[in-house]
Amino acid sequence: MDAKNYVKRLLEDLEHVAGPDERGVHDPDWLRGYVAGIAVAAQYALELDEAEDE
Question: What do you get for the CA distance between the two ends of the chain, in Å?
Answer without folding.
Answer: 14
